[in-house]
Amino acid sequence: MIMVISLYQLYFNQSSDNQVNVGFVESENLIRDLTIYPSTIPENQLLRIHEAEELYRSSFEDGTFFGVTNPEKLVKLVKHAWQWDKNAMPYYYKLVFWADSYDEKGKEYDIVMMSFNEFMQKYRNQLVDNAGNPLSEPDIFKSIKIRGYLWDKFADLKYPYFAYNKSFSYAPRRFDEQGMTRPSPDEQLEKSIEYLNYAIEGGYHCYEALTARILFQQGRQYKDQKYEQLNKLTEYRRALKSDDLKQAIDYAQLMAEHSSIIGILRMTEAYFYGLGREQDPVKAYAWSLLSDYAKQKITEIGNNLAWHAYQLPPVWEYNKQIQQRLEQMLTPTGKQAALDYLEILKTKIVTWDYNEWRDQIDDF
């Protein structure tokens, strides 16, 4: 598909192959090729998501000062982006966005970095493919207006980086004057779920966000901005189908098996209330005891595996409430059965560092 954008486009002005002035300027009557092409790089040489991010972080500074910190790494990033490596492209676009923000004041602090324009002029001849052929910047990068088009199309094509970021545009964090989360329409939640599923297919471990979108009208695990009021499983979206509820609990179990505190709580709730699982007080009690065990592990390791330490008090409190009710319900035999099942659950924990697993991205 070829799309035409003609009037008042913002674009890069390239004066020659060896001199490139990077920056967005206005022009008229330009015909751009906005086709999204397959990469010309062999599949086994394409950057993984985390590799592309690391190349960007280690080659360009866009914080207090702006400039190139490692030209060799930046050459690699640009070469991949210009050859349609989808994981490199958003970081190249970010480079272009910051190109005119080079801060000369950095030199006053002995932070000497070259600007992106200087980099392009000095290293333009190194931007070649594996056969040594000069590369050209794809048209799709040459307009700041293309960002929305680029991001949306890549998200719809199920590229995980873009799908992950797109998912949050449908379930933004919106709070009222009292700091309570505003509910999201079902249609927006379903679109967010769609893109989160694309991201998971591409290696993201974003089950925490996904279960919140599936289960709750706010699209979040908490009702408020300060993380003091937890959404309870009994408050699930009434439009939710039973199969979707079960799937959400399946995801919660996966989180729990990687030591997610909120995942463990959802499993306790699921068996206690019979939501997404058959009602089973013995298993509910075992999961609640696993939460206590996880709390102990968090203390031993120093909170480095906590879901988020400041968010956990409402989880502990609610877990204790359910646990006390179960203790009144169960016979000594039932409690012993729960203790036996607890030992089985402990063996199913893949890692006690949930944060590390949550932030991992599998190869794509």
Task: Give a brief rundown of this model.
The protein has 364 residues and is mostly helical. It has 14 helices and 4 strands. Strand 3 and strand 4 form a beta hairpin.
What is the element layout, followed by pairings?
Layout lengths: L8 E6 L5 E8 L21 H11 E3 L3 E3 L2 H12 L6 H10 L17 H8 L22 H11 L3 H8 L18 H16 L5 H9 L26 H15 L4 H13 L7 H21 L11 H17 L2 H16 L6 H6 L5
Antiparallel strand pairs: 1-2, 3-4
Helix pairs in contact: 1-2, 2-3, 5-6, 6-7, 7-8, 8-9, 9-10, 10-11, 10-12, 11-12, 11-13
What does this structure look like?
This protein has 364 residues and is mainly alpha-helical. The protein has 2 domains: 143 residues, no CATH class; 202 residues. The chain has 14 helices and 4 strands. The strands form 2 sheets. The protein has a two-stranded antiparallel sheet with strand order 1-2. A two-stranded antiparallel ribbon has the order 3-4. β3 and β4 form a beta hairpin. α2 packs across α3 and α11 crosses α13. The N terminus is likely disordered.
Main features:
single chain; 364 residues; mainly alpha; 2 domains; two-stranded antiparallel ribbon; two-stranded antiparallel sheet; 14 helices; 4 strands; elongated; disordered N terminus
